[in-house]
Amino acid sequence: MENNRMIYRIEGLGLEYDSLLIYKDFEINIKKGSIVSILGPSGCGKTTLLNVMGNLAEPDKIKVNDFKALSKSFIFQEHRLLPWKTVYDNIAFVIKKKFDEEKMQELANEQLRQVELLEFKDYYPGELSGGMKQRVAIARAFVYPSDVLVMDEPFKGLDIRTKRVVMETFVKAWEKDKRTVVFVTHDVEEAMRLGDEIHILEGPPVKVVEKIRTNGVFRDMRTESAEFIELRNRLKCMLDGVCQVLDGTGANNEE
Amino acid sequence: MKDSIIKNNRKIIWLSIACMLGIWQMISGLISSEIIFPSPFSVFKGIGFIVQEKYFWISVLSTVKRGLLGILFSLFSGGALGIYAGLKKGGRIFLRPYVSLIRTTPVVVLILIALIWMTADFVPVFISFLISFPIIYTNTVQGIIQVDKSLVDMAKVYEVGKSRILREIYLPSISAYLTAGVSTAMGIGWKAVIAAEILSQPKYSIGTRLIEAKIYLEIDRVFAWALLAVALSFIFDNLLRIVEKRTMKWKTIE
């Protein structure tokens, strides 16, 4: 049993929608200071869970919700940048009331440097590529002084190369910050690459069918160890029922 | 590519204006009565005369002031009520009969009622307000309804206050709708203001100068003032485009 001071908990979550039982006595523990990937097929109720965590949805029943009182920053599926504000102003927008002008400038510039976009600070979102916009969204999430960072499939819709760059940017920013991250995705590789723990959901009613602890060993995006490939295949099997064939070298021959 | 299209469009516009002048000249030649239908030449000469008139500038500026005041009033009231009605469906439904009433009542009826209620100087302001209010209100409501709610949700999760959400998300989102509203309101507003001035006849106004020219059967001056009114509308529409371009730089990028 983990020490309560080390985890954030949700217990006894119950939610019904259109007479369909989505959550029933659902429970999840999020270890503080770690990235927890919540992996599940599309439409299994992952976003609903995020909405409960972000106080954007009110469940029918809940016993313990440590998330309710926490401050949160978000990285959404879409970048959600204000098109009429420059990159810098988009970052400053969320912390304007939290810090004085000088501190705000320092923090915003530091985060922009972190995501390697400092020289684009005076650009408008319309002038940036999709990957750059999502990096601004990452900077915005990290600059905000939150207890938890919640991510809802933030790499969806990016091409493979851009996705890797954005994920690397995210990992770099996180390693400096070590914030608690709840990362919801339906993509096995993303969940494995980022997570310290992977919680696999199934449902409805949604339940955690397996919890895998990886301790972030797969964060180096350039390597694909045998262990990585094996776990990836197993998880894909679980999720999609699609199993890959491996050749003798252990290399992935999916492509 | 874009530049050559613009150049080409300009050429077509100049050609169209030249055709208009040609047709005008032809009709006036056929009628051959300067009192009934003056030629373009007499009208341009008329402009030369009216510019030198004692009350020219004060008349033009007074009309402009009245028109702008009316639009400004409706920008504040139509904008504020539009934001409220855009956010609250109940408010929108409640205000619907009032807006319909203002929109559908004939302008001349509004002018006649205003003449009973207020001084000659204020009638055109009131008319300009009544004409532009429904346009600006409707555009603001549309703008608010179209606001990207995901941006509002983003601001909410980052605990951005309501007044900042209004100022920094809603207002910029509706600015394009507002500018379009003001542009349409100005187009219709000038006509209504001059019509109101003709009936209320304040001391200094384009409308009063027009009716004076008509009484003295100086048709070239009537045409000259009408042409100036068109030019006024054109100038303000272009000024608005410049302001729009400057304030919405991000839009031209997107």
Could you describe the 3D structure shown?
- The complex is a heterodimer of chains A (255) and B (254).
- By secondary structure, chain A is an alpha/beta fold.
- Chain A has helices at 46-53, 87-95, 101-114, 130-143, 160-177, 188-194, 226-240; strands spanning 7-17, 20-31, 35-39, 64-65, 72-75, 148-152, 180-185, 197-202, 207-213.
- In chain A, the strands form two sheets. Chain A has a six-stranded mixed sheet, with helices on both faces. In chain A, strands 2-1-4 form a three-stranded antiparallel sheet, with no helix packed on it.
- The longest helix of chain A is centred in the middle third of the chain and has 18 residues, at 160-177.
- The N and C termini of chain A lie far apart (42 Å).
- With 254 residues, chain B is mostly helical.
- Helices cover 86% and strands 0% of the residues of chain B.
- The model of chain B has no long low-confidence stretch (mean pLDDT 88).
- Classes of the chains: A alpha/beta (255), B mainly alpha (254).
- Chain A binds chain B through residues 54, 56, 71-74, 76, 78, 80, 82-85, 93-94, 96-97, 124-127, 140, 144, and chain B through 150-151, 153-161, 164, 168-169, 172, 248-251, 253-254.
